[in-house]
Amino acid sequence: MADIVLVNPKFEASYWGLEHALPFFGKRANVPVACLPLLAALTPDDHEVTLVDENVEAIDFERLARADIVGITGMSVQRARMKTLLERLADQDVCVVVGGPWITVKEDDFDGLADVVFIGESEETWPQFLREWQEGSHHRRYEQAEPTDMTRVPTPRFDRLKMEHYLLGSVQFSRGCPFECEFCDIIVIFGRRPRLKTSRQVIQELEAIRVQRVAAVFVVDDNLIGNKKAIKSILRDVIKWQQAEGYPLTFFTEASIDLAEDDEMMRLMTEANFVTVFIGVESPNEASLPARNQEVSKCPQGHSDRQDSHDSERRARGVVRHDRRVRPRRRLDLCVPATVHPRVTHSARDDRDAGRDSQDPLV
User: pTM, whole model, 2 decimals?
Assistant: First the structure.
């Protein structure tokens, strides 16, 4: 049996973290990263797992020194803190492993500081590593040969997190995005073919987060509507669950701007109780979009910028007309901040740290 501690390092204060607003709500962090509770679910029962999110609690380094395995995850904006933690653990007699979005796109950044590195998804490689560690035959580098089969992903162990300290819960319906935005790490990590969980998995995840007395949930899919046909089927089942349970959850998510052209999708999202959608708009200048492979953000043919903006707002607000069968809600908000999209890779904008990367299931 291994004593395992998995650590999510502290984020620096930013627009996205809401650090200065959180005290008004009595919370310490806005949303938990998806990887910690998922890795706990992927760990066999004969191991002991402790989850530590430095954004809600201080790290007990004496506790880390007593562990057999310490895992550190992190996104690009956490890389400095990741390195600090790895350097502090260097002289401890523990097996130090590191994974996550940052090391996946910049594998050599922590050379000599970790015993084991995980590249990309880890639903298969994490259990493999634990088996080989017990046998004394583990490798230094792990990378899955194939993308994760999302229909086999277990329900995350939200009960291992201190959920009372988060403003929102987090769940995941799918991974991947069909677009090719040049600055984004999502297609590097998850690919361009969206992969979805089954409706049964999604409902089990919603039940698990509800048990933690969470009412507002961020659906962390990097583009919820990447596979429109498949997600519509899931949304219909989520609607049935919400109606049967009395609408216990309110959802937030992010999606591409073409959502505003799909009335059925917005109607289903509204009936499922999605209230806000984050839209990343990299530039209001259409001429600059091809350089970023951002064709999806262009206005439909025959529409002016002004007309397209008006039509998108009309559609977004119009689909949420009152329906006695659903919880009253007047509109689906499309949230478009006036900033560069936060998901950046090292090669694209190494020094642009305004934001957070994907909420992905990496070590």
Answer: 0.82
Would you call 311 helix, strand, or coil by DSSP? helix
Give Cα 104 distance to the centre of its chain.
15
Q: State the chain's maximal CA–CA distance in angstroms.
A: 65
Report how far residue 101's alpha carbon sits from residue 103's, in angstroms, rounded to the nearest whole number. 6
Spatial separation of the C-alpha atoms in residues 290 and 273, rounded to whole Å: 34
- Contacting residues for 116 by C-beta, under 8 A, at least 6 apart: 95, 96, 97, 98, 129, 138, 139, 140, 141, 142
Confidence of residue 181 (pLDDT cuts 50, 70, 90): confident
- CATH superfamily, domain at 3-143: Cobalamin-binding domain (3.40.50.280)
Tokens representing 356 are 């957070």
Both structure tokens of 208: 């698990």
Cα distances from 86 to residues 9, 26, 94, in angstroms, run 11, 31, 11
Side-chain half-sphere of 319: how many Cα atoms within 13 Å?
Answer: 25
Least Cα distance to 39 among 160, 136, 152, 213 occurs for 160
Instruction: Give the class (CATH, top level) of 150-349.
Output: alpha beta
Neighbouring residues of 274: CB distance < 8 A, sequence distance ≥ 6: 219, 251, 252, 253, 332
CA distance 88 to 82: 10
Residue ranges of the chain assigned to CATH 3.40.50.280: 3-143
Cβ atoms of 160 and 211 within 8 Å: the answer is no
Cα angle at 72 between 9 and 340, to 5 degrees? 55
> Model confidence over 102-127: pLDDT tens digits?
999 999 999 999 999 999 999 999 99
Q: Terminus-to-terminus CA distance in the chain, angstroms?
A: 19
